[in-house]
What does this fold into?
Amino acid sequence: MLSLSAEEFSLRPSDEQLEVVSWVHEFAEDVIRPAAHEWDEREETPWPILEEAAKVGLYGLDFIATAFLDKTGLLLALSSEELAWGDAGIALALMGTALAVSAIYANGTPQQQGEWLPQCYGTPGDLKLAAFAVSEADAGSDVSSLKTTARYDEAKDEWVLNGTKTWITNGGLANLHVVVAQVDPALGARGHASFVVPEGTPGIAQGRKFQKLGIRASHTAEVVLEDCRVPGACLLGGKDRLDDRMARAREGVHSATQAALGTFEATRPYVGAQAVGVGRAAYEYALEYAKGRTQFGKPIIDNQAISFTLADMRTRLDAARLLVWRAAWMGRSGQPFTGAEGSQSKLFAGETAVWVTERAVQILGGAGYVRDAPVERWYRDSKIYTIFEGTSEIQRLVIARAISGMRLN
It folds into this structure.
């Protein structure tokens, strides 16, 4: 694992970061946006867009590693905002693999990272997808209630996985899955472990594919595991580390990391960054519309009700971005989230995106309610940011526990 010294926090991205952001924005503007409506209607993974991204180096391990290892933590946040500004569904199709990458990076040994990370993306012309499978029908916010099991077959040095995952980005379609399963149910979340299920493994299949309100270009489905056997080496972190962690858990020693929660903690600011991108797209569109739309002989932005709404939209977006940047920097530089700053960023950015996009629809009126304008799609897309990777209610619970020091329910 790479250890980097903390960088000074700055509100001005470096020239190198701005150059990357400009490149990502250009791709979002020239490639993603023109295709967004089509793939929203088709509700399919936009393979041609992924191929274009792979050709220019935007979909691949090199780019995501550069963003992950940025010493300030801001590069991935900046890039995520630009991609979601282009289209949230396509952005998730491009970034969904990064969830599995984050899990392997956070939980895997250096040898496992070297083996599995390159297999997550493939190469132009031979693209691969990866998926991070945690949620279940009865274990969404309550991760401790996972029913998927992992049983160790010592004679064969294999783990046998059984269960059904749901709402999984790239689920079943992915070439490689990282599955979080229960090894010792008595330990709750502390009895979880993460397993890599490589391409071609018998016993893993796609279940139901979901039709969604928004982010329709992102594939979401069930993942069904039936006596799915993976080699012992597919246990992220290795069996010795797992045995040691569970022994300490049985003795009542608190563990700083858990298989699923560690990944969520690392990625929440970047989910918040996507929400900011969606909200920003809607705000910019509504602003230009208000300047050009004339009613009663004057642009509607001349009406205080409209101009003040736009002022609030911009203010909330800027505030959300600052929370995201702070959390991204804190996470990358090893600062403790004593006030649940990661959850703060995701909570505020997600709810801001919903509020801003709804206001954008209102400013456009009837024009905002039909599919001729993209604001209705941004409105639909925004809602997911108050639901996945921890609902707004769970974020508030995490924050409340952090600031009170109490185990609130």
